[in-house]
Amino acid sequence: xxxxxxxxxxxxxxxxxxxxxxxxxxxxxxxxxxxxxxxxxxxxxxxxxxxxxxxxxxxxxxxxxxxxxxxxxxxxxxxxxxxxxxxxxxxxxxxxxxxxxxxxxxxxxxxxxxxxxxxxxxxxxxxxxxxxxxxxxxxxxxxxxxxxxxxxxxxxxxxxxxxxxxxxxxxxxxxxxxxxxxxxxxxxxxxxxxxxxxxxxxxxxxxxxxxxxxxxxxxxxxxxxxxxxxxxx
Length: 233
Known about the structure:
Blueprint: H1 6-18, E1 27-38, H2 49-53, E2 57-58, E3 66-76, E4 81-102, E5 108-126, E6 135-158, E7 164-188, E8 192-201, E9 204-206, E10 215-217, E11 220-231
Antiparallel strand pairs: 1-3, 1-11, 2-4, 3-4, 4-5, 5-6, 6-7, 7-8, 8-11, 9-10
């Protein structure tokens, strides 16, 4: 595990360890619907496959902006803190073509690029106005564990074999970890809550030599509308 993740993981584990002591307090099953936006080209990790692909394929990094959904269980830790564990899902397919090459008949050499992310999030939040206030702004940190799949399929040019065009499909999968930072505000009642949240996560996956880059940058921002159902006292 990367050194920068150890303090976050230890903090989250310590909070989760004491969560059972507050299990009788009011808990929330939180649902989210939002938009995931990937990190810009100038901020992506070295060796990122999307950045490398843009040297010869026509698409934009922003094309990977996608809808996201999620669910999270929130448990109070006293009046001003709470712990959360959740899961999300985002997927996007982007059409691309070679920028400087076409087939002999003038047709584009086209392929699809697809990125899927299923993040598991373990977070701790601070609520400066407390759990009982109707208006509840919060900030938080945590650890993300992201199951991901990146695929390229369609027609490709073999630059090492007389520019031969062939059909193919290349897939990379894995699990990556990284920090999460979030902030938001919600309006809470006895049984329901609604709000908005901004969440940032950073992580990167490893790809094999079939791809133009050795990494896939999974980081980005998620802008969520949240809806919660509350249980307990």
